[in-house]
Specification:
This protein has about 800 residues and is α/β, with parallel strands linked by helices. The protein has 33 helices and 24 strands. About 50% of the residues lie in helices and about 15% in strands. The longest helix is centred in the first third of the chain and has 28 residues, at about 40-70. The protein starts with 19 loop residues before the first helix and ends in a 7-residue tail after the last helix. Bound molecules: N-[(cyclohexylcarbonyl)carbamoyl]-beta-D-glucopyranosylamine.
Length: about 800
């Protein structure tokens, strides 16, 4: 035993329950207090999770111990969202014990499938940004990077979507109801977070003002830790999520006033802070509670990072050598003034030194080009909630404007555009500008997006600090998005080229040698058909609709948003329906068009589009005259787990956003990796997919990003398309005449208005014909099975770049300057 190993208590434990089987039965009996007569599937799930946890604890402790040593620089990934999904299969897979577990479960007459479905999704995110954070955790752990994830332990994750009469209805996601065996509460790791109050200052003997934030209302942040296991490595990183808890003095103050019940109520209200995830996608709502959540998690996180740093170093200049902080969008942007506040007010550093440390430690990722998604907080609100931070932001801004004036004398336009504060005291604080000014690195999430970041969103900052800007194209983890969710295909690929692809996705290139091998292409087709049969059963269970696994599964699953253009898809479906109806005996390619995705609860048009999809579905699916050539399905409650079943079964992946609006997309990558061909615009990461996969192996159509801009400049008239394209006119006129909604006339007027009256901002009508034409090519090529599967194979083979492993290696090297540490 080495000296270091002696830190563990394991040497004092006599009965070690070494085997998985022992541990599992131990937990069933002693942790869950169950016998053979009272056992339920939920017990089996719990015991299994506890067994997995036991299995990683020693590695986890050891990893933590390594990371505490300050010679290893650690990256802290701050994100308001981690859309993890389920952990069981992923964990068993990473530990390499799936087979062993299957055998144990057999003894109790359970299959792994029975147990898998019991675990609720950890839905602590609303879309791509949160899922990216989860993929990054997986890659950082797998490749042994010293990393911590920090976020909020929402009691309610993304809402559960129910479809009633075709409309979306939201229900709470009470994911913690039956307990969560993966998390460990750390009551000893808790920090006080302050709000409100006012700022006082004293002038010390050197004439320096020392600021005190006083009379605050405080809340505690308590840590809950989740182990993040890498694939086949001893490295176990930590995801630390904060829960809000009332302070002890809160109890004391209120309970002493005598009104016990009121005191309990107040305590509850204060603890609401970490209650619920805001479910909007690419939209900034500006709610006070959201701002409180952001500061709460930033403050607890920075205190935690600081506590670890100070445990064995008191030279603050070393912070940037030992700590990197990555802001996942602007949501944790208060980390900038908070770090300044800690350094200046608590550690008494001078401004310049504090600023140097802060701007060498913090890096920022931008995920959106939509102006309505950029966070701005009211000046007044900030002055009430975080008065000291506002002062610091003002000073950051004053110095920034000085710099701008020096670099671009007299350029008032630049001053206005770059100012962190907009509109003075009645205005607001632009968090994105704060992030750019306070970070040493600003990155977009795909090549095209990073260009737009430099040339449009932050053009003026780019002129001042070109060296800060860089691109990190997104990626996905192949462990979850191929190996675990599509293991038949994964295993088959391994049988052809070995399993190096699991940690180096570029290995898939080796598949290219089989691109004309009929046996291999046949196998790919069989695997796909198998997945489609499984999904067809699930669709029937979830929606009551029967679909034909031999039809083309044409899939658009993602958040509902106008820029993602589910509307373009549905307009084309109506057009296709018209064509089939007018000539039912032609040689059609039969299609099952599958949608899934949530609309933000207050996003009226997006909800209206869901209703349109379901209404069109009802009409088409019940029309006997089209011989089942077309089916339209909306699968409710899109989630990570549902995606894991849908994506392996897709033939066609719809990535049809208006060019220039989707920052990257990551669904696009998951589909290609699972052998679906992409029908898409040159937007986000589709552009790089085309570079890698080859134009001839994708179905690319529509305006390019610069054409969209150009056309908007020149004046775009949707009416023109309506008048000049008879197919399109027919489709729109059907909507006008309530063809799909004769019982609820007029309900789609808002959709008609966005398209024709309000200027069709996302240029659906412009791209309609190009989309129809490309769809015809898709249908033609799908009929040629050999050609299609040759493309499928090439898509899979050329996905290497789109692994989150590649993305994380780039972040580690170019931004964080961290190295893997073998545990
Ligand atoms: C997404 N953003 C982008 N934001 O839309 C997508 O193109 C990109 O692939 C992905 O990030 C990862 O980079 C996104 O999901 C949000 O959900 C925000 C959550 C918080 C409120 C505002 C929207």
């Amino acid at each position: 035993m080495t000296n270091e190993d002696s830190i563990f208590f394991s040497d004092r434990i006599k009965n070690k329950h070494e085997s998985i089987r022992d541990k599992f039965y131990y937990h069933l009996q002693y942790s869950l207090i169950k016998d053979k007569t009272t056992l339920t599937a939920h017990d089996v799930y719990q015991a299994l999770a506890l067994t997995v946890r036991d299995n990683v604890i020693q590695k986890w402790l050891k990893t933590d111990y390594e990371h505490q040593k300050n010679e290893n620089k650690v990256v802290n990934y701050l994100s308001m969202e981690f859309l993890i999904g389920r952990l069981m299969i992923n964990s068993l897979n990473n530990l390499g014990i799936i087979q062993e577990v299957k055998e144990i479960l057999k003894e109790l007459n359970y299959s792994l499938g029975d147990i898998e479905g019991i675990e609720p999704d950890m839905g602590l995110g609303s879309g791509g940004l949160g899922r990216l954070a989860a993929c990054f955790l997986d890659s950082m752990a797998t490749h042994n990077y010293p990393a911590m994830g920090y976020g909020i332990r929402y009691e309610f994750g993304i809402f559960k979507q129910v479809i009633r009469q075709g409309y979306q209805v939201e229900e709470p996601d009470n994911w913690l109801r039956d307990g969560n065996p993966w998390e460990i509460k750390r009551p000893e790791i808790k920090y006080r977070v302050s709000f409100g109050g006012r700022v006082e200052y004293l002038t010390n003997e050197d004439g320096k003002n020392i600021y005190y934030w006083v009379d605050t209302e405080d809340i505690m942040g308590v840590a809950w830790d989740i182990p993040i296991l890498g694939y086949e490595t001893n490295n176990v990183n930590t995801l630390r999520l904060w829960q809000a808890q009332a302070t002890d003095d809160f109890d004391f103050d209120y309970f002493n006033t005598g009104d016990y019940i009121k005191a309990v109520e107040k305590k509850n209200i204060s603890e609401n802070l970490s209650k619920v995830l805001y479910p909007n996608d690419n939209f900034h709502l500006g709610k006070v509670l959201r701002l409180k959540q952001e500061y709460f998690f930033v403050s607890a996180t920075l205190q935690d990072i600081f506590a670890k740093f100070k445990a064995d170093c008191n030279d603050f200049n070393k912070i940037p050598d030992q700590i990197a902080i990555q802001l996942n969008d602007t949501h944790p942007s208060l980390a900038i003034p908070e770090l300044m506040r800690i350094l200046i007010d608590q550690e008494r550093l001078e401004w310049d030194q504090a600023w140097e440390i802060t701007t060498k430690t913090i890096a920022y990722t931008n995920h959106t080009v939509l102006p309505e998604a950029l966070e701005k907080w009211g000046y007044e609100l900030l002055s009430q909630l975080l008065p000291r931070h506002l002062q610091i932001i003002q000073e950051i801004n004053r110095r920034l404007l000085e710099k701008v004036d020096k670099a671009f004398p007299g350029d008032v336009y630049k001053m206005k555009a770059m100012s962190i504060i907009e509109g003075g005291e009645n205005g607001c604080v632009r968090m994105a500008n704060l992030c750019v000014e306070g970070s040493y690195s600003v990155n977009g999430v795909a090549k095209l997006h990073s260009e737009i970041v430099k040339t449009r969103i932050f053009k003026d900052f780019y002129d001042l600090y070109p060296e800060k800007f860089n691109n990190k194209t997104n990626g996905i983890t192949q462990r979850r998005w191929l190996d675990a969710c599509n293991h038949h295909l994964g295993n088959y690929i391994s049988s052809l080229i070995g399993n190096g692809w699991k940690t180096d996705l570029y290995e898939l290139k080796k598949l290219e040698q089989f691109s004309d091998n009929e046996e291999v292409l046949n196998q790919l087709r069989e695997k796909k058909l198998h997945n489609k049969e499984i999904l067809a059963r699930e669709i029937y269970e979830l929606t009551g609709i029967r679909v034909n696994p031999n039809s083309m599964f044409d899939v658009q699953v993602k958040r509902l948003h106008e820029y993602k253009r589910q509307l373009l898809n549905i307009l084309h479906i109506i057009h296709l329906y018209n064509k089939i109806k007018s000539n039912p005996n032609a040689n059609w390619t039969s299609r099952t068009i599958i949608f899934s995705g949530k609309a933000a609860p207050t996003y009226y048009i997006a909800k209206n589009i869901i209703k349109l999809i379901t209404a069109v579905g009802v009409k088409i699916n019940s029309d006997a005259t089209i011989n089942d050539l077309l089916k339209v399905v909306f699968i409710p409650n899109y989630s990570v787990s549902l995606a894991e079943n849908i994506i392996p079964a897709a033939d066609l992946s719809e990535q049809i956003s208006t060019a220039g609006f989707e920052a990257s997309g990551t669904g696009n990558m998951k589909f290609a990796l699972n052998g679906a061909l992409t029908l898409g615009t040159l937007d986000g990461a589709n552009v790089e997919m085309q570079e890698e996969i080859g134009d001839e192996n994708m179905f690319i159509f529509g305006l390019k990003a610069e054409e969209v801009v150009q056309m908007k400049k020149e004046g775009y008239s949707p009416e023109h398309y309506y008048q000049s394209n008879p197919d399109l006119k027919k489709v729109i006129d059907m909507l006008r005449s309530n063809y799909f909604n004769d019982h609820e006339p007029g309900i789609f007027q808002p959709i008609l208005d966005t398209l024709l009256k309000n200027g069709d901002f996302f240029m659906v009508l412009e791209d309609f014909q190009a989309y129809c034409n490309m769809n015809e090519r898709v249908s033609r090529e799908f009929k040629d099975t050999k050609l299609w599967y040759n493309k499928v194979l090439l898509n899979i083979a050329r996905c290497g770049k789109f692994s989150s492993d590649r993305a994380i290696h780039e972040y580690a090297k170019d931004i964080w300057n961290i190295k893997p540490v073998k545990v």
